Fold these 3 entries.
Entry 1:
Amino acid sequence: MGRLVILAWAFLGLLLLGADAEPARRVALVIGNGTYAEAGTLANPVNDALDIADKLRSIGFEVIEGNDLGKRELERSIGEFSDALEGAGVGLFYYAGHGLQVDGRNYIVPVDARLDMPVKLQLEAVPIDEVLDIMEQQTKVSLVFLDACRNNPFARSLSRSASTRSATALAGLAQFDSTRGSFIAFSTAPGAVAMDGTGRNSPFAQALLRHIAEPGQSINDMMIAVRRDVVSQTREAQRPWEQGSLLERFEFVPGEGPAPAPKPAAEPAPATQMATAERSVGDDKSSIETFLRDDYLSPDTRDMRSAVKRLYGPSATVFGTPYDAETLAKVKSDWFAQWASWSLGLEPGTLEVTPHGESSAQAVFAMSYDYTPKDKSVARVAGKARVTLELIKTEQGWRIVSETSQAM
């Protein structure tokens, strides 16, 4: 029964795979620390973590998140992350907040840390390489994103500023000694300041949110696009960098064919341009709502190949698993074959559309579902789910490139 409910949340049962094709799970730990007891307050790490967590869920990650964590809470979250990684194919760790390096080793600083003496480091901070070790031991692909300060909080002379992750650059985070199947992204170069940002997000988080869900883009190309945005926004004061040892290409949202060239970074839009963009969302929202009602929630189950072609791009990722059109059609046919009747509905007033440029958008909405099984011994499956779709606009209309959902 529990498995059937999970399948219903996924709308068409796209998690139902054969015994020889188990999906490769993707699990993330997302932490944002901003309210420090003895190191001042940073405005944006919690915002960054919340937004990154939502974005990762929308592209198929299971997310464990925590914000403003003390040492013991942080360690418990890491333990929960370790348990969740069992059997996963990809692990991701994102951290925003204060960080430091001492003797070439990098540390996360919990919000309750008291680092007035170096001897307290082992008791008060958490080594980042221990989190990486956990990931590398359990997954084939380990991804780390560190939007942390490059300063040493042992120095009493540090001035505190809301505009930076720390005010005086003393020593940047160090490269990791060795990695296996890992990709590690740093928000700024060694010895430089990582800005906290003047809006909702830091420059690094803002750029990451903009580019991470672009279909067909490798993680290396994504970081080039992120770096261009951050360099432009900070007027070359901050330059992200990375190190890695991945053995194969990794894409957050798989796509068909080579990835397009990274878009040039743009200056923040003036208020008048933002107003124009917001007005244009209305047209997109109307067409997307029509697509959802007429196609996504009313698929032609008699011709599943045509339905898949009308609903999805050439490839689509569902709960982190990429599918081609043929496989998708078979999975969906098998799913509907077990139901005597079914109905899906868009809950009124729940659709939220966020445009990403001119030809892509994110749609989030509440969906009701009700499945009556052919097998009388199996219980009816009904309820509501929060669905997140990443969409692209083609000549034929909107198409889905990423789909996920969770119970309401």
Entry 2:
Amino acid sequence: MTESIRDELARLTLELCSIPSETCHEAQIASWVQARCAAAAGPHAVTRLGNSVLCEPFGRDERPGQPTIALVGHTDTVKCAEEQPYEIRDGRVYGCGASDMKAGIAVMLALLDRWRELEHGRPVWIFYDGEEGPAHGNGLGPVLASGALPAIDFAFILEPTDRGVQPGCMGLIHATVTIPGVRAHSARPWQGQNALYNAIPFLQKLRDWGRREVRFGDLSFYEVIVATAAATHNSRNVVPDALDLNVNFRFAPGNTAESAEAELRALAGPECIVTVTDTAPAGDVYADHPLIADWCRREQLAVLPKQAWTDVARFTTNGIPAVNFGPGETGQAHQAGEWASIDSLEHCYGALRRWFAQ
């Protein structure tokens, strides 16, 4: 691989980072990506669905018998840090969303620019919005339900994966667990029951729950239940009669949101009120899928569990095998001063280019 592709990928990542695209504000970057796709493959190959962009340069009657492969990336970012640098320095691209996942979008676009040179398979490109927000606002759901895509045989989601392949993903539940008490004046607390103190047994259960290993072959996923926020709704001089805890349950592939919810309710006990506010399914594990198994061995790619949720789950629940494989560093996601290494950009681009050349 020449130095020029490194420079191209780095410049493209920085350009993408310079386009603000916080969740719910993706119109500008969607228009930019749409124009870029139309320039590469022609306007006839591009479909805009809200702020999601699909690109299908190959006709559906071309390459009969070849697998249809989706290259998938979200264009939105979390709210950017105020002191975020935007520059290329010391082998890294600095910018909001650099690792999560403007670097992945850059690799997708670099491959799209060379779509005529991709000799194997029938790739389609999916750029979507709303991944960093709540599940109901995720743009991939409407895309998969739209009928605008051909039947997909396999999907690569270009989330950062530390140069490995990460099959499957964790499912999640967010729930409000309300611990009741009895209201009283704070000068006479013995007349009430402080919901904060009543919550101690449940909080101790969460503290002691630790993590639970679930194995798929050589892969270990870890289920965890964590309290992430607490709130009362009383004045400062009132003993609270209720404490609301946000509890996040991350469950492994093979588990379901329904069984995880039942476990959480049992853990909370009958004295607590559990209200589920958000759920997302776990993603099935396709570590040895025939479309990637030999490729993983040739590329000497580490196969690692995805200890988080990604849109791999949306594909696998729709019966489409998928894995996470993208540039960037997982530890940089959502960080102030976020960066992606140029080595990871080159590595991901080269590995995918060779998949389409096999």
Entry 3:
Amino acid sequence: MKLSKILLATSAVGVAAAGLAYAGGHMATGSFTLVSWGGAYQASQTNAYTNPYSANNPDVEFVWDESSAEAVAKLRAMNEAGNLTWDLVDVVASDALRLCDEGLAMEIDADEMLAPAPDGTSASDDFGDLLVGDCFIPQIVYSTTFGYRTDMVPDGVEPPNDICDVFDLETYPGMRSLESRPINNMEWALLCDGVAKADVYDVLATDEGQEQALAKLDTIRDSVIWWNAGADTPQLLADGEIFIGSTYNGRLFSAIVEQNQPIGMMWDAQVFDLDGWIIPAGLPEDRLARVMDFVYFATDTQRLADQAAYISYGPARLSSAPLVGNHAELGIEMAPHMPTDPNNAQNTFLYNYEFWADYRDDIDAKFQAWLAQ
């Protein structure tokens, strides 16, 4: 199964479906620390995963830690100290590959550890190509894209609809926000400096290409507020401190649709990526049993479709796509708000998680040195 097949399926108009019975393990007990990203995304996990699980397992206490952005560094430190306090960690695919390569994440057998689809299709076939690493359990397809203040678009000018509008300070004056890491920023910079989409990662693999990307970013550097948390850009937009800024599409959906902020979406060159769970290596047997019971439940077909009722991310299972229906509170159809919807996905950029797993540390160091100049 190809990634494009799941991307297409997650854009299909959904239909309401009755809840599917959980076919997992035992009644679990004890404390359970999950690591995620906070904000609207973590709230969607609470509504779709932990609340229903708690209904069947009232003796499990969930403790959330919002440190997913620092997962690699913190798991390295825990391993070195011999003090593993996390039970299940939500990470992007490239970080999952890094943690797996370093022996900090447990290898999985999808067909043994995850539920089959309702029609009996194996988990490995249902997740397909989204099982991108030996340790990665996919949840969602999301994108990093741009939101802009609709009331700050200059008179007589079309709203921004091209990624290179971010670099056009003359037509679109005002502050921008970009994430304080090289991922996505370097790709967009090269695209807007004339590099063909198909060549971006070949160019970025070279010292010259990295310098080219940083030089392009230099052209707007004085107009950039650098963000660390996904909630930063929506807040900066809401406060009118920036004209345009990058963040995760689900954060912008929340600001636009749920909060009715004067914000528009710019989907051009949105970067598709995957997010999912890793299980830290070395968990004691009792904690691992709790994790496995929860993971089986939380990654089944209905649960992944349920998450899409709270946030505009496409579920990672092919069988979940037809079950995506309306927003749980607003009642609006969710499919058109997915990054995978054909109207939104006319010019996408596919994130190369393998490239960043290999080059992340070196380019991170170069990027942070550039930021500190």
